[in-house]
Write a structure and sequence with these properties.
With about 230 residues, the chain is an alpha+beta fold. The chain has one domain (about 5-210). Helix content is about 20%, strand content about 30%. The strands form 3 sheets. Strands 1, 2, 3, 4, 7 and 10 form a 6-stranded antiparallel β-sheet that branches. The chain has a two-stranded antiparallel sheet with strand order 5-6. It has a two-stranded antiparallel ribbon with strand order 8-9.
């Protein structure tokens, strides 16, 4: 593979607002008698809930694969074709022999900016014949109205000059515009699908508000500080 040169760096920022109670799964290695069966993930420093960037990135990828017809089994797309938007932006899954270069996006953890209270919800399964409830369990959800800071860094390389995608009007775009339109398409699909567990039961409905796209200026290199 020929040497790569980075040609652009962009930052997408915004806000994720929870419209319905959202289950952001945490660790339940220790089951406490009389406690909650399924807890929410929390920032160990502040104790407040947050949304892992890996979860957001994974949901964006999965929804794009569904939208673009890239689902072929239980594994994410790893075709590594040059025209595959998923593999180019997110990386070919488990495919180390490709010429697409590094992953194009970095999805940051989304930390709480407003709200964040935890509600307890009890679930159960229903017997089909009698309608009776059984196997109750209690889980934690982050309450509606909570808001989280959203940030995605996008990098573009010289090999992206020939990459083509479409803008919202269906017009073909290339290079940085092509990569950015894949990312924004993934964000739109993320908003449609929701986040966390239980979206099929009404959990995890969200609204994403985006700020203007920024391209950070090239930072002046720092001088070397000599040792004392």
């Amino acid at each position: 593979m020929a040497p790569l040169r980075k040609t652009g760096h962009y930052v997408v920022t915004g806000e994720i607002e929870l419209i319905s109670g959202t289950r952001i799964g945490g660790s339940d290695d220790v089951l406490q008698i009389g406690g909650t069966d399924l807890t929410c993930i929390r920032d160990p420093a502040s104790g407040k809930p947050y949304i892992p960037g890996s979860s957001l990135k994974g949901r964006m990828r999965a929804e794009l694969e569904r939208e673009l017809g890239k689902i072929t089994g239980n594994e994410p797309c790893g075709c590594a074709q040059r025209d595959c938007p998923v593999c180019r932006v997110f990386g070919p899954h488990k495919n180390t022999r490709h010429e697409l270069g590094p992953t194009r996006i970095i999805v940051r953890d989304a930390f709480l900016t407003e709200g964040g209270q935890i509600e307890l919800k009890t679930e159960s399964t229903n017997k089909r014949m009698t309608g009776g409830a059984e196997h109750p369990r209690t889980l934690e959800r982050v309450v509606p109205g909570s808001k989280f800071a959203f940030e995605v860094a996008v990098q573009v390389f010289d090999i992206d000059r020939d990459f083509e995608y479409t803008d919202p009007d269906g017009k073909p775009v290339h290079d940085a515009d092509g990569i950015l339109n894949v990312v924004y398409h993934g964000i739109d699909l993320l908003e449609q699908a929701g986040i966390g567990a239980g979206v099929g039961k009404g959990y995890g409905k969200i609204r994403i508000k985006l700020n203007d796209l920024t391209k950070p200026p090239t930072r002046t290199r720092r001088p070397v500080i000599p040792p004392n």
